Amino acid sequence: MKALIYDAAFDVSVKEVPDATVERPTDAVVRITSTNICGSDLHMYEGRTDMEAGRVLGHENMGIVEAVGDGVDRIKVGDRVSLPFNIACGSCDHCVQGKTAFCLRANQAGTAGAAFGFASMGDYAGGQAELLRVPWADFNSLVLPEGTDKELDYTMLSDIFPTGWHGVELAQFEPGDSVAVWGAGPVGLMAAHSARIRGASEVFVVDQHADRLALAASIGATPVDFSAGDPVEQIMEATGGRGVDRGVEAIGYQAHDSSGTEDPTLALNQLVAVVKATGGIGVVGVYLPQDPGAKDDLAKEGRLAFDYGTFWFKGQGMRTGQANVKAYNRQLRDLITSGVATPSFLVSHELGLDEAPAAYKKFDDREDGWTKVVLHPGELTTAR
Fold it and tell me: Which domains does the chain have, with CATH numbers?
């Protein structure tokens, strides 16, 4: 089968690899119809993780079940399924509590949490390929309506739509709250979309890329261009000095200012400044225990100069971590099916797998108009 392989920093290629197969009775093999390039894939693409050369990338996957093991009795060959990026066993202490992002059994290294095609998250192949092996397939597969309708919406269920929703949830959002989202990449835009669906009174989205800010405006959010001035000051002025009830950090450890200078504390500290006293902050941007590529010694150790004094004095709350996709994906599927949610609004490109290396470069370079790339390893048979 063809698959996209991580070779080295800024170097990925499409190669022939052995077909994915059923290895355990609880496995399934899925023929991938859509697999997305995620912003967190770029951390690996840029060499800012310990991703091993030769691994297949891709954790945002959906497709058609092609084979199942003898122990699989819920899903069947021919089912159209979305696959959470979290790989979870379904039976450990965390999984039975719904905390599938922190499964205690799936990661071969013994740490909590596993994922398809991701650094330090187990040795599982990713789905930017023609076929994907899915462990614990009955537990990890969300069955979708038959056909090809809303393919570009349903493909967001594997990660970014649940992750954006999770960011709003972590901030302890309540209907009527005002929200500020730092970062208008795919996850940030999904957080804004989620906040609007959930009844936010106002949503601000902070970024500096015009194409992303235009998408934020298209879903009823207020765009804030940080290259035009301090985003905290802009939001404080727009709210009459009150700030916002909730904040979502959707950038992560490679946050940077308008000049391009990297500062992993920038978004966190700006959110502390703009969120009201007793307000909540949800952090879904990726942060790492170690970041050897960081600019300063503290950040290399995964430690940040966080404005804890102001955070404490304002009585704010902060919750963090990867999304437990299965906690949300069924409800979000139904919101898509009913037409309430339309996460495909951010898709800019649909490409074949052979075009993936060039697409990675354009997405990483933040070329204008490259807001979300969906790869189709097979025929392009999708319909919005």
Answer: 2-159+324-376 (3.90.180.10), 163-320 (3.40.50.720)
